[in-house]
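This part of the workshop introduces the protein records we will be handling. As an example, a complete record with its sequence and its C-alpha cells follows.
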Amino acid sequence: MRNSLKFKNKIEIKQSETAPVLSIKNLKKHFKSGVGKQKLVVKAVDGVSFDVYSGEVFGLVGESGCGKTTTGRTLVKLHEPTDGTIEFLGKPIAEGIKSNIEAIQEAKKIIRSEKDTAKKLEAKKSIKFNRKEIRRKKRQNEKPNYELMKKMQMIFQDPIASLDPRMTVKEIIAEGLRISGVKKDSVIIEQVNKVLETVGLVPEHANRYPHEFSGGQRQRIGIARALVLNPAFLIADEPISALDVSIQAQIINLLNDLRKEFGITILFIAHDLSVVKYISDRVGVMYYGNMVELAPADELFENPLHPYTKSLLSAVPLPDPNYEKYRKRTIYNPQTAHDYSEEEPVFHEIREGHFILANSKELEEYRKELKG
C-alpha cells in the first residue's frame, strides 16, 4: 500500500519577504534493502518541501514510520539525501543526485532511439551538464561547512540511547566544544556549567554519569549538549515521547523559554498533536514520506482539510469522559480517499499560508469546505 499512490510535491509557494533559516526543496531519502536482484527501495522521504523561518517553531507530525525522524536526521547529515536540496542560512549544505542520474538515463535512451540529430545533440548536452552537476554535488557533500553546521544541532528522541554511558556529563557536553577547537579546560568547564544552569541542572551534575539521572534530567543533558555550541537552529526529534506527562510539560516549557531567550528556531518532530498545537507556530503533516498539509497551527486545528489530517485529529483524546465515550475515529484509507489515476496531486496554497496536497478535483472540494 505504501507505494501504491505516487505523490509529487511540486510546490507552488509565494516567496516570503523574510529569508528562511532552513529551506528544503524536493527532499528525498530512499533506502535499499535486500540482497542482489531482490533489493527493495524504501522511500522513507519522497519529495518533501518546506521552509522554516527565524524564531519560529515548526511542528512536523505524522504516524510512526512516516519519515519525520529520517527528515530530521537527513538535515543534520546523518543521512545523505537521495535527491533534493537542503539550504541552511542561505547556503546549500546537501544535495542529492538521483534526478541527475535519471536525466542521464533518459538522455541515453533518446540517443539510442531518436533519429533527429538536433535532439541527439540536446541529449548529449544534458548528459554533460548532469555529470558535471553530480561531480559538483559530491564534492560539496564530501566537504561540509563545519562552521555553518555547528549552528544546527539535534536533540535525539531517546536520551539514554544517545548519551554515552561511559562518559560523564561534562565529557558529553564538552565533546562538541573540543571537536570545534576549544582546548582550554577552564573555558570548557565554564561553558559546561553555564549551559547546565540554562537547562535547569547544576554544575555538580557535571561529574556524574547518565545512568544516575532520571529520564527528564537525561533529556535536559541532551538539550545542554545541543545548546553548548550556540546553535541558531534546533531539531527536536520527539524529545518528550519517552517521558512522564509532568516531565513532558517541563521540557516543553524549557524549549519555549530557550526560544524566547535566545531566539532559537526549532523544528519540533512529534506525533502528540496536543503538544504540537501548544508549542508550534506552523505545522506540517507527513504521510508515508510526503507532506500532505501545512498551515499555521491554529488554522490547521480549526480547518483541517486533508482526510489524513482529520484522521490524526480524531485520535486526539480529551479529558472529558462523556466525549470519550462516544468519540469516533476517522479512518484514513488512501485507496478510497483519493483517485489519482488521471491527475496526480500538487501542493497548492488554498488559503494564505495553508497548503494542501491535492489534484484539481480535490482542490475544488476543499475550497467549498472552507467556504461552508
Residues 1-17 have pLDDT under 50 and may be disordered. DSSP finds 15 helices and twelve strands in the chain. The two ends are 33 Å apart (CA to CA). The longest helix spans residues 117-142.
